[in-house]
Amino acid sequence: FAFLPLAYWSHAAKWSDGSIFILNFLAMVPLASMLGVFTEELAAHTNDVIGGLINATFGNAVELVVAIQALLANDFRVVQASLIGSVFSNLLLVLGMCFYMGGLVYPEQEFIAQGAVASIALLAFSGLTLLLPEFFGGEGEGEGGGEDVELTISRIGAVLLILMYAQLLFFQLKTHMHLFEGDDDVVALIPFSWALIGLVVITAIVTVLSEWLVGSIDGFCEEFNLGRSFVGVIILPIVGNAVEHISAVSVAMKNKMDLALGVALGSAVQIALFVLPMVVVVGWFTGRDMSMKFPPLEVYLYLLSVIIVSLCLSNTRSNWLEGSLLVFTYAVIAIGIYFEKDVV
C-alpha cells in the first residue's frame, strides 16, 4: 500500500512512463487481493445463486477494468494480449503450481473429473470462436467489407460465448451443484454494507490506476525495450492473477484439489467466456471496432495449451511432474511471446 501515494504522485508529477507503469502495477496487486476478499465477503451474505453471480461478475474485475480502459483508449492489442495472457496464466502457471506444490506434499492427488472436463471443453469452444474471424473474416466486397465481416463474426461469437457462460452458471448453481460445492462453513466476517462499500471503493481506485497504467504502456515498452505483446500477455496478468495463484496453491497443498482446480480453471473460463466477449460487446456499444481476431500464433498456442492441460487432467490424478510440465509450457510460451513482433 506504500505504492498507492507513489503511484498517484508519479502521474501528477509526470514522471517517466516506466516509473508510472511500475508504481501503478505494484499498487494494484494488493488492491486486487482486497477486491477478492470483499467479493467473497459479499457473496457470503447471499445464497448460492446470488453469491455465484457476484463471484462471476467481480472475480476478474481487475482484468475487466484494465481491458475496458485499454479499449476506451483504442489500444485493442493490449486488450487482446492481457485477456489471452490471463487465460495462459491461470491455465498453465497457476494450475501447474497447484499440481507441483501439492505433488511435493502428496505423491498423487485426486479430483472430480466432470467439472474439470467441462471447463476444458468450454475453453476449447472459446478457442474455436477465436479462429472464426481469422478464417472467415477476411473476405468481403467493397471498401471495408472484410473488416465488417470480421466484426460481425466477432460480435455474434461474443454473444454466443456469454450465453454459454450463462448456461455454465446455471449448470454450476442449479442442476449440478454437487460437483462444485465449496466449504459449507463459510461465514461472513464483516457486515454486508462494509463489503459493498469496500467493493465499490476498491473498484473505483483500480479504475483510476488502470487508466494511468494503460496510458504508460507505450513509454514503458520503449524504456525497457519490451514488446507490447509481452507486456500484455505476460506482465499485466500478474496483477489480476496474484490472488488466484496464492489461494489456489495454498488449498492444493492441503489436498483440496477440487477447490484448487475450481479457482484456476474457473478463473480461466471466466476470462474466456465472460470478460473477453463482454469487452467486445462494450466496444460494440461504444462505437469501437473491437474484434476477436487475435494473432493466429497466439490462438494456436492457446489451443495447444488447452490440449496439454486436458491430457494432464485425463486420469483424474495429478502429481508434481505434470505440474512442472505445465509451468515449463508457460515458460516456453513466454519466451515465444518475448520475441513476437508487435501487431500494429
What does this entry look like structurally?
The chain is mainly α. It contains 14 helices and 2 strands. A two-stranded antiparallel sheet has the order 1-2. Helix 5 (76-105) runs antiparallel to helix 12 (257-285). The radius of gyration is 20 Å and the shape is globular. The mean pLDDT is 86.
The average pLDDT is: 86
The ordered H/E elements are: HHHHHEHHHHHHHHEH
What is the number of strand segments? 2
Q: What is the structural class?
A: mainly alpha
User: Strand order, biggest sheet?
Assistant: 1-2
- Give the strand content: under 5%
Bin the helical content: over 70%
How many helix segments? 14
Rg measurement, Å = 20 Å
- Terminal CA distance: 35 Å
Main pleated sheet:
2 strands, antiparallel
The geometry reads as: globular
Spans where pLDDT lies below 50 across 5 or more residues:
none
Write a brief structural summary.
With 344 residues, this protein is an all-alpha fold. 78% of the residues lie in helices and 1% in strands. α2 runs antiparallel to α3 (48-58), α5 (76-105) packs parallel to α10 and α5 packs antiparallel against α12 (257-285).
Keywords:
14 helices; two-stranded antiparallel ribbon; globular; mainly alpha; 344 residues
